[in-house]
Design a protein that fits this description.
The complex is a heterodimer of chains A (153) and B (154).
Chain A (H helix, E strand, L loop, with lengths): L6 H12 L3 H5 L2 E9 L10 E4 L1 H15 E14 L2 E12 L5 E13 L2 E9 L1 H9 L19
Parallel strand pairs in A: 1-6
Antiparallel strand pairs in A: 1-2, 3-4, 4-5, 5-6
Chain B lengths: L6 H12 L3 H5 L2 E9 L10 E4 L1 H11 L4 E14 L2 E12 L5 E13 L2 E9 L1 H9 L20
Parallel strand pairs in B: 1-6
Antiparallel strand pairs in B: 1-2, 3-4, 4-5, 5-6
The chains are: A alpha+beta (153), B alpha+beta (154).
Chain lengths: 153, 154
C-alpha cells in the first residue's frame, strides 16, 4: 500500500507553518520539495514554482519578513487522505512599509512522503492579494464594458 | 461519528460536474445548498454566494453558458475526508463571445450530508482569470510604485 500521511504530521506541520517556525517547518520538507504558488509573478514575485528545501526555506525565512509580518494564519478546513492533504486558510498580515493590514484566503494541496512535504500547490485569491499589497484596485481602469465577460467555476 | 461521504459518491459527482451535466448535478444538491465563488463580483459576476438548489442550478445551467463553454475539467487532486471533499482542477474554456481560450486552476472545498452537497467554496487564481476574461493584462504598470520586494507570500 502506498504511503498514508498521519493527520498528526499534517497538524504538526501547520502548527509550525502558522507560527512561522522555520526550523520546525524545515523538518517537514523533503530535500526535493516542489512548492508552487499560483499568481502573477511580475507583481507577486513569490508566485511560481520553487524546487528544493533550501529555496523554499529561504522564501519563508528571508523574503517574506521583508514584505509583511504575519499576524495570523488560520486553517479553517483540513482534509487528509492517503498521501495528500488539502487545507483552506485565512492569512492576515501587516505590510512592512506602512503597517497596512492585508488578509486573503488561500488553499493548499500537499503531497507527503515519509512524513515530509514533497509537493505543495498554493491557490490564492491573487487579485485580492495583489490589490491589497498595492493599496488600490487594479481593475478600476479597465473597460467596464467588458463586465459581461464572466468566468465561473 | 458524523456523516462520511463515500469516495465513490465524490467521484461520481466530480464526473458530472466536469461534464457540466446540471440535471445530474441537481440530484446531488441539498435544497439549501450554498455555492460560493471567491473573486471580484464587479468583473466576475458569478462570484459571491448562491443559495438554494434552484439558484445554483440556474447559475450553472443558464448563466455560465452565455459566457463560457468549458470543454475540459481535469482533476489534479481529490481529497476526501469525513463529510468533506477538496478538489484541485484545471478548467479550460472558451469565451462564448469570441472563442478566446481561458484556462486556470480551480479548487473546490465541499461538504456533504446524507449524499447531498450542502456547501461548496471555490477558490481560483483570480488575477489570472480576470486577465483572461478581460483579454488583456491588468494595468499593473500604472499602479503606484511597488517596492521591488513588495510581494505577498503564503
Amino acid at each position: 500500500m502506498s504511503y498514508c500521511v498521519p493527520r498528526d504530521v499534517v497538524k504538526a506541520f501547520y502548527d509550525a507553518y502558522a507560527g512561522r517556525d522555520i526550523e520546525r517547518c524545515a523538518a517537514f520538507l523533503d530535500d526535493d520539495v516542489h512548492w508552487t504558488i499560483s499568481g502573477p509573478v511580475d507583481l507577486l514575485c513569490f508566485c511560481g514554482t520553487r524546487r528544493g528545501k533550501a529555496v523554499v526555506i529561504d522564501m519563508m525565512r528571508r523574503q517574506v519578513p521583508q514584505v509583511f509580518e504575519i499576524a495570523s494564519f488560520v486553517t479553517d478546513t483540513m482534509l487528509v487522505e492517503g498521501d495528500r492533504a488539502a487545507t483552506f486558510n485565512r492569512l492576515s498580515a501587516r505590510l512592512g512599509g506602512d503597517g497596512r493590514p492585508i488578509s486573503y484566503r488561500l488553499a493548499h494541496f500537499m503531497r507527503f512522503r515519509d512524513g515530509k512535504v514533497i509537493e505543495n500547490l498554493s491557490l490564492i485569491d491573487s487579485l485580492d492579494a495583489a490589490e491589497q499589497v498595492l493599496g488600490h484596485p487594479l481593475t478600476q481602469e479597465c473597460d467596464r464594458a467588458e463586465n459581461d465577460n464572466l468566468i465561473a467555476v | 461519528m458524523g456523516y462520511q461521504v463515500p469516495r465513490s459518491l465524490v467521484g461520481a459527482f466530480y464526473e458530472i460536474y466536469a461534464a457540466r451535466d446540471v440535471q445530474a448535478m441537481a440530484q446531488y444538491f441539498h435544497d439549501d445548498v450554498e455555492w460560493t465563488i471567491n473573486g471580484p463580483v464587479d468583473y466576475l459576476s458569478f462570484c459571491g454566494t448562491h443559495r438554494g438548489k434552484a439558484a445554483v442550478a440556474d447559475m450553472i445551467q443558464c448563466q455560465i453558458p452565455k459566457v463560457l463553454r468549458t470543454y475540459s475539467f481535469v482533476p489534479e487532486a481529490i481529497v476526501v475526508d469525513g463529510d468533506q471533499a477538496a478538489m484541485l482542477s484545471r478548467q479550460s474554456s472558451r469565451r462564448t463571445t469570441d472563442g478566446q481560450p481561458i484556462s486556470h486552476r480551480v479548487s473546490n472545498f465541499m461538504r456533504f450530508l446524507d449524499g447531498k452537497l450542502m456547501e461548496n467554496l471555490s477558490l481560483i487564481d483570480t488575477f489570472d482569470a480576470v486577465e483572461q476574461v478581460l483579454g488583456h493584462p491588468l494595468a499593473v504598470q500604472e499602479a503606484p510604485a511597488l517596492d521591488p520586494d513588495g510581494v505577498v507570500a503564503i
